[in-house]
Amino acid sequence: MSPPTSEQINALLPQTQCTKCGYPSCRQYAQAIVNQEANYNQCPPGGQEGVARLAQALNQPVIALNTIHGVERRRSVALIEEALCIGCTLCIQACPVDAIMGANKQMHTVITDLCTGCDLCVAPCPVDCITMITTASNATGWLAWSADAADAARRRYEARELRLVREQQENEAKLLAKAKEKFRALEAEMPADQIGLNEKERKKKIILEAIKRASS
């Protein structure tokens, strides 16, 4: 039997995108497992059941969850104390699954049903208005989660990643257009003396270098 692919391993992870395993995303942790760069017991949200699922897929023995990365706990969700929220958007930027609504200088709120409990939004908050609240269920690991919830979280994470790439590309395109416009305006300038001409050439060189970097 051929070894599992990173996609197959990723499908066995809870998709909380919490980074507790030591990798930026569940997908990258899955790739690290396949590359034998990481062990298969580093995912606290998956808990001991998650270790067992990965062990079976990898045809390896079931080992204990490595508590260096965290312990198996009840599921929790983020809660924003809205009266204290200053609308800085740092929590929105930190949320890997777009589970926080709000806008700059406006109150933010967590969409509880979408929150994976990753707690990545807590640390960036400058006014400490975010706390993690445990759910009513005493279940932990995969008993507190589901394949459907994991799949939905994965789709939201991937959609967010695509959106961020698109927004970056759009921003870079706008900056490039502005640089080209500035260069054309500079070309049309008629300096009155040699000092002005030298300054014009200096600015042109800077803008051309910026355009070259943006176009590469």
What features would you describe in this structure?
With 216 residues, this protein is mainly α. It folds into 3 domains: 6-69, Orthogonal Bundle (3-methyladenine DNA Glycosylase II, Chain A, domain 3), CATH 1.10.15.40; 76-144, Alpha-Beta Plaits (2-Layer Sandwich); 163-215. Helix content is 44%, strand content 6%. The protein has 6 helices and 4 strands, in the order H-H-H-E-H-E-E-E-H-H. It has helices spanning 6-10, 26-34, 47-58, 90-94, 147-188, 194-215; strands at residues 76-80, 100-101, 109-110, 130-134. A two-stranded antiparallel ribbon has the order 1-4. The protein has a two-stranded antiparallel ribbon with strand order 2-3. Helix 5 packs antiparallel against helix 6 (194-215). The longest helix is centred in the C-terminal third of the chain and has 42 residues, at 147-188. The radius of gyration is 24 Å and the shape is elongated. The two termini are 44 Å apart. The model has no long low-confidence stretch (mean pLDDT 92).
Summarize the structure.
The protein is mainly alpha-helical and 216 residues long.
Give a quick set of tags describing it.
3-methyladenine DNA Glycosylase II, Chain A, domain 3, 216 residues, 3 domains, Alpha-Beta Plaits, 6 helices, two-stranded antiparallel ribbon, mainly alpha
- The pLDDT mean sits at 92
Number of domains: 3
The CATH top-level class label of the largest domain:
Alpha Beta
Radius of gyration: 24 Å
Helical content band? 40-55%
Q: Which structural class do you get from the secondary structure elements?
A: mainly alpha
The strand count comes to: 4
Tally of individual helices = 6
Report the order of strands and helices.
HHHEHEEEHH
- By CATH, the topology of the largest domain is Alpha-Beta Plaits
Q: How far apart, in Å, are the first and last alpha carbons?
A: 44 Å
Task: Tell me the fraction of residues in β-strands, as a range.
Answer: 5-15%
Which residues sit in consecutive blocks of at least 5 with pLDDT less than 50?
none
Report the sheet with the most strands, covering strand number, pairing sense and barrel closure.
Answer: 2 strands, antiparallel
CATH A-level architecture of the largest domain: 2-Layer Sandwich
In the sheet with the most strands, the strands line up as 1-4
